[in-house]
């Protein structure tokens, strides 16, 4: 491949690589889920950047969801059908 043909290929590669890194940055930090099992009891702790924001407890088929809605460390009980998504304060602290 001649230098004249190589330059557009290199430019395209650089552009695609930078776009890939930008998309990764927009995705935000990755969360961590820790699971502990004890008999028929399962406890999952949801963290983002080390900060605990949700606890899910499943015991005897019953599901309990606790969520720190505003980052104050106080957890509120949600519906057992609730989806666990990071609350808005986790997005703010991740910036």
TrEMBL record:
<feature type="signal peptide">
    <location>
        <begin position="1"/>
        <end position="27"/>
    </location>
</feature>
<protein>
    <submittedName>
        <fullName>Uncharacterized protein DUF2782</fullName>
    </submittedName>
</protein>
<keyword id="KW-0732">Signal</keyword>
<dbReference type="InterPro" id="IPR021357">
    <property type="entry name" value="DUF2782"/>
</dbReference>
<dbReference type="Pfam" id="PF11191">
    <property type="entry name" value="DUF2782"/>
</dbReference>
<feature type="region of interest" description="Disordered">
    <location>
        <begin position="76"/>
        <end position="95"/>
    </location>
</feature>
């Amino acid at each position: 491949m001649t230098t004249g043909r190589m330059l557009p290929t290199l430019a395209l590669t650089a552009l695609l690589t930078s776009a890939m890194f930008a998309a990764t940055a927009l995705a935000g930090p990755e969360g961590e889920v820790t699971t502990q099992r004890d008999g028929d009891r399962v406890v999952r702790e949801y963290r983002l950047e080390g900060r605990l924001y949700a606890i899910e407890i499943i015991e005897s088929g019953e599901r309990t969801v606790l969520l720190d809605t505003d980052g104050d460390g106080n957890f509120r009980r949600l519906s057992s059908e609730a989806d666990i998504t990071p609350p808005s304060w986790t997005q703010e602290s991740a910036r």
